[in-house]
Amino acid sequence: MKLRSGTSRDVEIFTRLVNEQHQWLRGENLWEVDELAAILISPTAEPADHDRYLEVAGEPVAAVHVHVTAPYDKGTVSLALPPSADRAEHARTLIEAASRIVQTHRHVTPNAKLQMDVPGEDGELVAVAENLGFRPIQKTTILEGDILDAPAARWPADTDVASFSITRDLADGYVVVREAFPPRLGGWHLSEEDYGYSTQNDPTALPGLSLIVRDSNGPVGVALNFVDTTKESTGLVGILGVLRRRQHEGIGRAMLLETFDRFRSRGWSHARLATVLGMDLDDTDYGLFTSVGLRPIYDNLAMVRGVF
Q1: ∠ CA 229-225-258 to the nearest 5 degrees?
Q2: Measured distance CA(178)–CA(168) in Å, rounded
Q3: Beta strand extents in 87-215 (DSSP E only)
């Protein structure tokens, strides 16, 4: 068994490994190669520094990608871990390799944590993580719904909605993303650098899918939408955010319903999105999402431990 650093040529390998894992667990692929390339190769994710591949007899059998970005208090671990007789050992080896990557990062803070999202039904990996000192702090729920009969959007009178334009709306979109998803342990956060790169380079971010909402004072909402590559005829609501000063006014619901209309215009029948909840919350806490017909289908556990 040999551990090696990643290269820019390894995206196809990582894609194959992670899709084998998700086919085994959920009967569907997780990524397309060009879609994953926008994540594995970016200004903040050099493969040689952030990826490790585990080889047996010269063949890659598992891999890990680690993402560390401002405020540098967390390293996010993504495992590609197909089923095998030695899967638990592979998991331990890669998780400890990920910890070393974060420990040696030049900007990481002394109180940094290692965070790993684990499919809730993957009992083997949950057990390995717990034995290595991880504890679940949140869950990310993937929701899905049939959108063919969704009603039309109704907007507050003082708002204006438009198609999100990369050239025109990139900065305004991040104003909303930054406030709606601030950096915090366990929570989802996207740095401005990664936001700009992924928005401009993700091949599933088709023109006309995403929305920007403004009022007389500036941007108040954004919905960044994509092709969902895990299921045919499905759109993905990747980011849905509303400024605090305009929350609870129906803007989020209107963005979802307008998004569904744009998905239908492409012949798609379903939508998916992911939302983060505390471990003590249950299916009754999905509120807005269940009110527009989305239902939980999978849970990923956010598991955390100290790095040092």
Answers
A1: 125
A2: 18
A3: 113-119, 135-146, 160-163, 211-215
> What does pTM read for this prediction?
0.88
Residue 116 class from Cβ within 10 Å (0-12 exposed, 13-18 middle, 19+ buried)? buried
Q: For tokens 């198609």, what's the residue?
A: 163
Checking DSSP bridges between strand 270-278 and strand 135-146, what pairing results, if any? antiparallel
Per-residue model confidence as pLDDT tens for the chain (308 residues): 999 999 999 999 999 999 999 999 999 999 999 999 988 988 888 999 999 999 999 999 999 999 998 889 999 999 999 999 999 999 999 999 999 999 999 899 999 999 999 999 999 999 999 999 999 998 889 999 999 999 999 999 999 999 999 999 999 999 999 998 887 655 667 788 888 888 888 999 999 999 999 999 999 999 999 999 999 999 999 999 999 999 999 999 999 999 999 999 999 999 999 988 755 545 545 788 999 999 999 999 999 999 98
Cβ atoms of 174 and 222 closer than 8 Å:
no
Q: What is the DSSP letter of 253?
A: H
Q: Give the integer Cα–Cα distance in Å for 221 and 10.
A: 37
Give the amino acid at 231: K
Half-sphere exposure in the Cβ direction for 43 (13 Å, CA): 11
* Local structure of 127: helix, strand or coil: helix
Distance CA 130, CA 32 (A): 30
Pairing of strands 218-227, 211-215: antiparallel
Helix H segments across 27-86?
Answer: 33-40, 47-50
Distance CA 197, CA 39 (A): 9
Q: Residue 157 CB: number of other CB atoms within 10 A?
A: 5
